[in-house]
Specification:
Largest sheet of chain A: 6 strands, parallel
Oligomer: homodimer
Number of strands of chain A: 8
CATH topology of the largest domain in chain A: Dehydroquinate synthase-like, alpha domain
Strand order of the largest sheet of chain A: 1-8-5-4-2-3
Number of domains of chain A: 2
CATH class of the largest domain in chain A: Mainly Alpha
Structural class of chain A: alpha/beta
CATH superfamily of the largest domain in chain A: Dehydroquinate synthase-like - alpha domain
Strand content of chain A: 5-15%
Helix content of chain A: 40-55%
Largest interface: A-B, 41 and 41 residues
């Protein structure tokens, strides 16, 4: 097991109808900015329930944070924070709103060019002050409700950032708030969670037995409940299991002390930036091909996953790995998520532009061992057509 | 899944030889009381390494905290804290030292009779101030390094307490510090962790799929490595896996959102208080008999554990439950832990005194459904002879 630090101070308030607890969770004397995305939190009444739960406070609203939140939008919120002397941010939404709110929390205290915070991870990681923030979660996928990072789409790319200061102070996680999501967003959440776990698991053995088995438990659960929670959107227990797995899949727990990959995410981010493909769908496109190309360095963990999660135990190692990749692809497809670039109208002629974007963002040595050069990324993309 | 709150702000610093990080983890301006138990932290140099890592600070020491820490000893430390105006507590040891330090942290700010904090859990839970504390862990078992509770032996019994204020600010968890432990203490740690998990798992199904599978992962790991880490005490990876499972087994994670039992602990505490039997050994005595007596209410989870952890899948349900109990008992015995009261010289003639102690401490409706009355406890004890 590798050495590690583990720290996660976010308080999770999990369960149905717990809005009334917001009043004591949000500081009484705070001037609060409530942030949200499009109209769904209005349409389904979530925003009204949040506002009603926070009486006798000065509250401003900032709506319109997009999926894959845009830097320009977030900087407008920073202007509001500064002009109005906001001292608490409350995100109401999914990963994009929460990620965006984290960026606002940091950028509000940063005097330089806000793009620095995306351009140079070390600048962001060393910031010493941020606005406190919290979240009311309406979509299970990113784990942003219980972690220290986010991803922002900006003129210099779709890029990540992180700092302990942006752990939400609390997150209200009510699975029933996700009942009204469109089917494709639930499917995206299942795939996003599945690949988050894989980025921390599908590397090489490192004697992290708790970490491996906890990851395998989430993967098994997602396979068990993924299709079922899409088909039965108001089944509380199915959805609660998806939501809790999504939170646990990216809160630092399963990745502590073991190698991590994240190449699928890095390549996927370019697909979203260039072609607007949903984040989760980019992961479903890239990961199966990446496993195929990297099957030698990932061999032991691929076989372990096959045996422990998929019960694939017969055939030669190559045959089993083929089965493992195909079974995983079929799982994504069974959720209604297409797994080929060509399904999204992307052909071989676009690969150079994707590689150029990777190069621009210094994504030239990806994967758990830095072995995924641009040439390897080309093969992965060619295999994903 | 039940509704729940999850909160755990302890920072874990995990790995070998990280003492040099203590200097920035412990506040620079703090007057520190370093607390420890018997001579082993002196004998093996751990105390010296801690003190050397904290230069230019005012540091006092308080040694002699016993296994099953005694209230009278802890109140002497409270006197030191008050007289010397200590403002940071650093526990160096295992669960007893850390539990004791937590009690000191709370009692130092409590003006009433210190026994109140054990007599009435609600008094302790509502305290608003405590000294900050941290830990350097030398024994894996109790999870105290990453939770909010402790157990103290007092004139009114061996009793638990808890408050969010006593989460350690950080815990330095170096598996190599446990290499020098006597074999029986390592075995105790394996059993203690195993039963901590079971108290949060072996109840009834509650749609906590992440929780169940994470518990099952710890149980499998303990069965895999338990004997091996006793036999190979300086194998870092084996011990690191034990240590991390012990921390994860009682930090709130696996018990969030699912029913919990704790009857084995409650009855076990009386055996320690009356007869001085090691805590873990009391658990190994009580749990198999408790499962046998409570096999109807625990049936589904017993069978799930049998199938998923022990691979016991054939025979009638009663046969399988018999096999499951016997296999678990044999696992404890394989670690050198005896599982019968009679192994410790306790006979049927002592049962009345154990029941009287349970009654005195209001332990008359134990278990996940409060079904374990004194009459049921009698049967459990009779079955444990």
């Amino acid at each position: 097991m590798n050495q590690f630090n583990f720290y996660n101070p976010t308080k999770i308030i999990f369960g149905r109808d717990r809005f009334n607890e917001l009043d004591h969770l949000v500081p009484k004397d705070a001037k609060v900015l409530v942030l949200y995305g499009g109209g769904s939190v209005k349409k389904f009444g979530t925003l009204d329930r949040v506002l009603a739960a926070l009486p006798n406070r000065e509250i401003l609203e900032f709506g319109g944070i997009e999926a894959n939140p845009r830097y320009e939008t977030l900087m407008k919120a920073v202007d509001v924070v500064r002009a109005e002397k906001i001292d608490f941010l409350l995100a109401v939404g999914g990963g994009s709103v929460i990620d965006g709110t984290k960026f606002i929390a940091l950028a509000s205290y940063y005097d330089g060019d806000g793009l620095d915070l995306l351009r140079d991870r070390s600048i962001t990681a060393n910031l010493k002050q941020a606005l406190p923030l919290a979240a009311v979660l309406t979509l299970a996928a990113t784990g942003s409700e219980m972690n220290r990072g986010g991803v922002v789409s900006s003129p210099i790319g779709k890029l990540g950032f992180g700092n302990d200061l942006v752990f939400p102070k609390f997150s209200l996680v009510d699975p029933s708030l996700t009942f009204t999501l469109p089917e494709t967003q639930v499917a995206n959440g299942v795939v996003d969670t599945f690949v988050h776990v894989m980025e921390q698991y599908m590397t090489y053995p490192a004697e992290g037995r708790f970490q491996d088995r906890t990851s395998e438990g989430i993967l098994k659960t997602l396979i068990e409940i993924g299709r079922a929670t899409i088909d039965n959107p108001t089944d509380y227990d199915l959805r609660a299991n998806l939501v809790w797995c999504a939170t646990m899949g990216l809160n630092g727990l399963i990745g502590a002390g073991v190698p991590q990959d994240w190449a699928t995410h890095r390549i996927g981010h370019e697909l979203t930036a260039l072609f607007g493909i949903d984040h989760a769908k980019t992961l479903a496109i890239i990961m199966p091909s990446l496993w195929n190309i990297m099957r030698d360095t990932k061999r032991e963990k691929l076989l372990q996953y096959g045996e422990r999660v998929l019960n694939i135990t017969t055939g030669s190692e190559e045959d089993r790995i083929d089965q493992i990749i195909e079974t995983t692809r079929q799982f994504f497809e069974s959720l209604g998520i297409k797994t080929r670039l060509s399904d999204y109208g992307i052909g071989a002629d676009q690969i150079d532009s994707i590689l150029a974007a990777l190069e621009l963002h210094n994504m030239t040595a990806l994967g758990e061992r830095g072995e995924i050069t641009l040439e390897i990324s080309r093969k992965i993309l060619e295999g994903a057509i």
